[in-house]
Amino acid sequence: MTSGDAAPTVDQQTVSPARRWNYWLGGKDHFQIDRESGDRIADAFPAIRIAAQQGRAFHNRVIRHLAGEAGIRQFIDIGTGLPAPDNTHEVARAIAPESKVVYVDNDPMVLTHARALMVGGTTTYVNGDLRHPGTILDSAELKETIDLSRPVAILLIAVLHFIKDDEQAREVVRELLAAAAPGSFLVATNSTKDFIPPQTAAMYDAMLATGHVDAWPRDKDCFGRFFDGLELIDPGVVPICDWRPDSDERPTAAETSMYGAVGRKPR
User: Fold this and answer.
1) Model-level pTM?
2) What is the Cα–Cα distance from 61 to 105, expressed in whole angstroms?
3) In this structure, what DSSP letter does residue 7 have?
4) What is the pairing mode between strands 231-232 and 258-264?
5) CA 12 to CA 112: how far, in whole Å?
6) CA distances from 198 to 163, 204, 207, 219, 229 (A)
């Protein structure tokens, strides 16, 4: 979708994960239904706001590594959510001004905000759904911005857990990586119950069953399979708070309850 297209109608009666995440981060782009959903989850899991903040911190550390040490100049950020401080293009370009970024999301409000970020030839937005990677890869906007014959970083941060079926999620990752050049990177996170007490895990399962939460947690082994065939970057599959932290003072794995990892496609 180009910046000249009409924006889809924003649905104010259905919870949006992007708007709810924005609410947890202290943003202003959300509706009452998003706040109610966010508060319901926060009442059961008070650390959810910490997890949201740590997800952004993980994102920033990874982008700095990729744009710096790894020398990546192309980024495809799928499930980008609403703009927040330190967007992918901002972090990458602080290190490498020539970096190119394609944002992908299917939330109409994200589209509205993303248009303001579009810079011809260097930053653009694709109205797409992770469950249909072929549509994303075939989009004119991506092809005009990203050269898939050269290494690219594919970012799947806090989005894979919205695909319930493990095999479907793995197939999505395989299709995206198959289109990427050797030397490309996969960055992914996924919520987990591995670090929470059994009673809290049971409460989460009950909320999943009633539709009050919509992020499907995965254990370490299941999440790690997304990186099959890739070279894991040190420290491997870890809680996001433990991926190359820049401070000794940080939340616990239980507070973040999310795995993160970075893998490189062999040359």
Assistant:
1) 0.88
2) 22
3) P
4) antiparallel
5) 15
6) 23, 10, 14, 14, 33
Residue type, 52: A
What contacts 104, CB < 8 A, 6 or more positions away? 76, 77, 78, 79, 80, 125, 126, 128, 130, 136
The gap from C-alpha 165 to its chain's centroid, in whole angstroms, comes to 18
Which residues, including other chains, have CB under 8 Å from residue 20's CB and lie 6 or more apart? 30, 34, 37, 38, 41
Q: Judge contact between 265 and 230, C-beta under 8 A.
A: yes
pLDDT at 50: 84
CA neighbours closer than 13 Å in the CB half-sphere of residue 59: 28
Within 95-209, strands assigned E span 100-105, 123-127, 153-156, 185-191
Q: Please state the domain extents for the chain.
A: 17-264
pLDDT digits (tens, 9 = 90+) for 208-241: 999 888 899 999 999 999 999 999 999 999 999 9
pLDDT digits (tens, 9 = 90+) for 63-76: 999 999 999 999 99
β-sheet bridge partners, residue 51: none
Q: Which of 250, 243, 255 is nearest to 50 (CA)?
A: 255
E-strand ranges in the chain read 74-78, 100-105, 123-127, 153-156, 185-191, 231-232, 238-239, 258-264
Residue 178's alpha-carbon distances to 134, 139, 265, in angstroms, are: 11, 16, 10
Q: What is the dihedral of CA 44, 220, 217, 18, to 10 degrees?
A: 90
Query: Could you tell me if 128 and 138 are in contact, meaning their C-beta atoms sit under 8 angstroms apart?
Result: no
What is the topology classification, in CATH, of domain 17-264?
Rossmann fold (3.40.50)
